[in-house]
Amino acid sequence: MPLHDASYKHWEGVHLGLWHRRFAIAENGLTSCLQNRSIKHLVVICWVTALLASAILFMAGQLLVADSLIVQWVGNLSLELQAFAGMLTKWLEDHPEISVRTTQNVLFYYYSIALMPMSIFSLGMAMPLLLTRDLASNSIIIYSSKAVNLFDYLVGKFCTACGLVFLSWLGPLCATWFFGNLLSPDWRFFWHSRAALAHVMVYGLASMLVLGMLSLGISATSSKEKSTSFYWFLWWILGAVLTPIATKTQPWLRHLSFSFNLDQLAMAVFRVGDDIKVAQDNIPILGDMLRQVSARTIANMSSPEIGNSVLALALMIGAAAWIVAKRVKPE
Amino acid sequence: MPIPFVIETESLSKVYGRQRALDGVNLRVAPGAIGLLGPNGAGKSTFMKCLLQLHPITSGSAKLLGREVGTEGREIRKRVGYTPEQDCHIPGMVGCEYVTYCAQLCGLPFQVARQRAHEMLDFVGMAQERYRKIDTYSTGMKQRLKLAQAIVHDPEIVFLDEPTNGLDPKGQAQILELVESLWRTYGITVVVSSHLLHDVDRICQQIIIIARGRVLVHDSLENLKSRKRGAAEVVVASRHEELRLACERRQWGCHLLPNGHLNIEHKASSLNPLISLLHDMKLSPLEIIPSPNALEETFVQALELSHAAA
Asked: Of B2, B72, B147, B190, which one has the fewest beta carbons inside 10 Å?
């Protein structure tokens, strides 16, 4: 028997609003995800890359400072490099609107593309923790008997998936942009790189919506934990393998891969092809190197199949919503 | 101001495919300890789930705590607790985390939720095991935990679906004692769904008997017992045979039950003749249970009528 008062006590406080309850579901889901060691490690890796990318931006920024350690170090290597660094510095000073914008847009495009697999992988690992376990344990009945309904529950779970995408993708990207520019010698970099941030946000949020919905859909397909993770990875890997084959045979098949569609979306948002053209025409030395990029590649990057990709993603989201509506019910 | 009826239904029906789980249920239930009785598959759980909006109502209407079930689900469930029949905890969670989380789902701020979770776990008698993962709990612990999550947000009414399932007699008694105290001591209306008549007989004041989706009986336990007067169970420490012979002399049916109690059919509307007899014999009974089988007889009778009508 407890030594303290163990009798029932009434409570007369004020209930918090609906979004607090939805947030509680999302927070609980995210906490469960981060208790998984593999997911935790993946997230840490993503933030380590953010640190590295911030360091690269910092060093690029230091090229603008004539007496910075980096400029001195480059200068010490050889006179040619010293001249190159001086020219770059001059050019960066004269045309920051082109140099900063273009450089950061290209950098963040490739960084976004590089981080996406980490995010997809962590979602795959988290698949059982989204809906699968709740379907297996029937705990949806507990949620439904509280002051939330199925929609609130799904909003909470969707936010869990989005939270994971944020932690493993959008968060590191935004942090890189912020800290990279914060450490730059000129705070106008924030202004000149605003396009890169806008692109990251548009692409990241759109991808978050897509991946969040698709992961919920896959997570609801089965009540077996291993199955849903398997389906997710299978879809992703098959898509990646089939895309190059389908390009030469049936190009429409590529749209069955969500990662291909997201790549097309990235090209449409960042418009890296245009930036490469600008770089070819305006950036000294680096522009000469970029001239080796073929016109076809630039054309492909400038005109992604955005219409078909958006349609394909919309259909996938619709299918995921249908699966969730069919499968997620109390009992 | 207290509401006169906690549950009000009008022609409430629920249909699954071709099966009619609830068939025009009309009820007005006052606050109290309410027993929902019926054989397996009678529609007891469906009735509860419809009231909680876990399953949509096919036709008719229902009000819970004076609010319309179809339109005010969330508001209703803020004031309602529910313990489902089956295990449905969230895997991987620790007991106290789970109850805290359930409180948060009802809109309690985290700090309050955590404090109340510990209070409710104390109330249901869970000690250090609250810090263990639920997956490792015994059936008895899971039942206690289910009760704790149902009352953590201080509801006005609690629905308990087969709360003593899978428990040993001692565990059953402990859970029933807790449930009984919710109404008697703390004024929380409890609706206990069970097919175990003894459980309901012990803690409930109002009885609803459901079979084939229809309400067969809705009355107070006292009224049901008064209709079945004329028998009593007497517990005496000794002189069983002497009492049996005295009853036979008065042409009262009397037989010894396996538990050592004497079942006496005194055929009177009150216990006075039986008490007089005991007084004359200078025999002090340990306990007299009036109309001991009233609920069982009513239940069987209602089911027979229902079968005959079908």
From this structure: B2
Per-residue pLDDT at A64 = 67
Residues B130 and B32 in one domain: yes
Domain end marker among B225, B242, B270: B225
Please give the single-letter amino acid code of residue A270. F
CA distance A324 to A129: 15
Q: What is the pLDDT of residue B306?
A: 67
Give how far A12 is from chain B: nearest CA, Å. 8
- Contact list in A for residue B185 (CB cut-off 8 A) is 7-8
Q: What is the pLDDT of residue A183?
A: 79
Contact B117, B99 (CB under 8 A): yes
Out of A18, A139, A145, name the one closest to residue B82 (CB): A145
**B87/B60 same-domain check:** yes
Residue B99 within any structural domain of the chain:
yes
User: In chain B, which residues have pLDDT < 50?
Assistant: none
What is the Cα–Cα distance from B195 to B44, expressed in whole angstroms?
9
Tell me: do B138 and B196 sit in the same domain.
yes
pLDDT computed for residue B1 by the predictor: 62
* Closest-approach residue (CA) in chain B for A8: B123
> Predicted confidence band at A87 (pLDDT cuts at 50, 70, 90)?
confident
In a domain, B306, yes or no: no
Sheet holding B232-235, edge to edge: B253-256, B262-265, B232-235, B287-290
In a domain, B40, yes or no: yes
Q: Token pair of A93, please?
A: 């000073």
Same domain for B240 and B219 = no
Interface test mutation site (partner A, options B16, B55, B90, B129, max chain A beta carbons within 10 A): B90
Say which CATH number the domain at B108 has: 3.40.50.300
Please check the confidence at residue A1 and state whether its pLDDT lies above 60.
Answer: no
* Ramachandran region, residue B154 (left: φ > 0; alpha: ψ -120 to 50; beta: rest): left
Q: Which range (A4-8, A84-88, A101-105, B272-276) has the least confidence? A: A84-88
- Same domain for B236 and B169, yes or no, is no
Contacts of B151 in chain A (CB under 8 A): 8
Cβ contact, residue pair A146, B106, below 8 Å: yes
Q: Please state, in angstroms and rounded to a whole number, the distance separating the CA atoms of residues A54 and A111.
A: 11
CA A15 to chain CA centroid, nearest Å:
35
Judged by CB atoms closer than 8 Å, whether chains meet at B105 and A138 is answered as no
pLDDT digits (tens, 9 = 90+) for B118-165: 999 999 988 889 999 999 999 889 999 999 999 999 999 999 998 888
Pick from A113, A107, A114, A109: nearest CA to A59: A107
